[in-house]
Write a structure and sequence with these properties.
25% strand; 14 helices; alpha/beta; 457 residues; 20 strands
Length: 457
């Protein structure tokens, strides 16, 4: 039976490494965006007999395959095994082992024993592909595990928090939830459709409804909710963009101010659209607000947090750039064209794109949560913004595809209307000055490295 083994040093003890794997959120943190795996059901954790059923897209999402895995050979602090009960392989046994090292660190070993359908014929036909996929998968898993553990070690002596998140079901919210839970924090989502089994908190920002009593015991809040900016801006959608941010923040902050013991910190989302279309001008947090719809929205959005600061809540504003992930946002929309070799510069290609990897985005939000000295606005962008043309060339190189077909500005304007001019054809050259001054270290400071990690290349 073929075997695959990956061993990597980890910066924590074997017990701490095991604890990370046993916490809620570990499966999500270990699942790369390019796989787009969906958890169908889960019973128990990783102890003997617990099961997880997942759905994995195949052939570019044309078909979906379900896998039912059962956990076995559980040894607390040391190892556990996933064995496939139903799925595409004839056999699949994955043993996770955490080995202690004398200096207090550990070795993580992932050992897989698997068999493809049709035996030797199946291995000859597809074995090379499976091994290639395993190399990519475990490069990602071990790198993310190590980076997450490093981040949690930085704040190991700080109390564990109960964190409420709006927008928890979104791209950033889900990733942040997994990161926080694997660090031992408790997460509760503030959502319009609360589920009691998850411990959700219900609200309705459109009507200003959020019961302050439901927030009792919350130590921190991360406010990420807001309507998608990357759609055609009809009058109705522009109103949704404004209301979801301004009215949503107002509803949240009113509830916080009404609490007898408000949370210690509010990390509230914003966007680099605050700076407007600034051409090639280098911008940090000291730059003045620009002009235009997004700049006005960001001004009002951020302004609604002021009452929270007045009652003693530490408020940090996260002005986020273009978040890179194959599961959502701008990169997900670009990928199909680039994968078919049809990518290229948009408009002139000279407009700057201030980007950040999804991992750095959630790590920066966590950093703002945990550092008591952080308040006011912070640019959540990588330190190396690029032009749109450079972005396309780099993405094409990472995918090993040509990237020279331009999309003229008039076509984008015809397709997306006002939104195209403000987001796709406009840009900002933004630097994360205050974030780096505060001591934040980027996992992916350069674009090629970020794309390779997020896309498994």
């Amino acid at each position: 039976m073929p075997q695959f083994i990956r061993r990597s040093p980890m910066p924590v003890s074997a017990q701490a490494l095991f604890d990370w794997h046993e916490r809620d959120g570990a499966f999500e943190r270990l699942t790369p965006g390019w796989q787009q795996t969906r958890v169908v059901s889960r019973t128990g954790g990783i102890t003997n007999g617990s099961r997880v059923e997942v759905e994995v897209p195949l052939l570019g999402g044309l078909i979906h395959q379900r896998l039912l895995m059962e956990h076995r050979n559980y040894v607390a602090g040391s190892q556990f095994t996933d064995a496939m009960i139903e799925g595409p392989f004839s056999a699949w046994v994955h043993t996770h082992t955490m080995e202690p090292v004398a200096d207090g660190t550990s070795i993580l070993e992932d050992r897989l024993e698997y068999a493809l359908p049709m035996g030797a014929l199946g291995d000859a036909a597809a074995g090379w592909f499976v091994r290639q996929q395993l190399e990519q998968l475990f490069d990602f898993r071990h790198a993310r595990t190590r980076a997450d553990l490093d981040l949690h070690m930085t704040h190991a002596n700080a109390p564990r928090l109960t964190v409420a998140i709006t927008g928890g079901t979104g791209l950033i919210g889900r990733a942040l939830t997994g990161l926080l839970r694997t660090g031992g924090h408790t997460v509760r989502w503030i959502t319009r459709e609360p589920r009691a089994d998850r411990g959700d908190i219900g609200w309705n920002p459109a009507t200003g409804s959020l019961d302050p009593a439901a927030l009792a015991g919350i130590d921190a809040v991360v406010h990420l909710a807001g309507a998608n900016v990357g759609e055609r801006w009809t009058p109705e959608h522009k109103r949704a963009i404004v209301d979801s941010r301004v009215q949503g923040t107002r509803t949240l902050v009113r509830a916080l101010c009404a609490m007898s013991i408000p949370p210690k910190v509010l990390v509230s989302g914003s966007a680099i659209g605050y700076y407007g279309d600034a051409g090639s001008t280098v911008l940090d947090e000291s730059a003045q607000r620009g002009s235009g719809f997004l700049a006005d929205v960001s001004r009002d959005w951020e302004g609604e947090t002021a009452p929270a600061a007045q009652v003693g809540v530490r408020v940090a504003i996260a002005r986020t750039g273009i978040v890179l992930s194959p599961t959502g946002g701008a990169l997900a929309k670009m990928l199909p064209a680039f994968q078919f070799g049809l990518g290229g510069p948009l408009g002139s290609g000279r407009q700057f794109m201030s980007w950040i990897s999804l991992d750095d985005e959630v790590a920066a939000l966590y950093f703002l949560l945990m550092n008591e000295a952080c308040s006011g606005p912070y640019n959540l962008t990588a330190p190396t913004p690029v032009t749109n043309a450079e972005f396309g060339q780099t993405l094409g190189s990472v995918l090993n595809r040509p990237a020279f077909l331009p999309v003229p500005a008039f076509a984008l304007t015809a397709l997306f209307g006002e939104m195209a001019g403000a987001t796709i054809l406009g840009g900002q050259r933004v630097l994360p000055g205050r974030l780096q001054q505060a001591g934040f270290r980027f996992r992916h400071p350069d674009l090629a490295g970020a794309l390779r990690f997020e896309l498994g290349r």
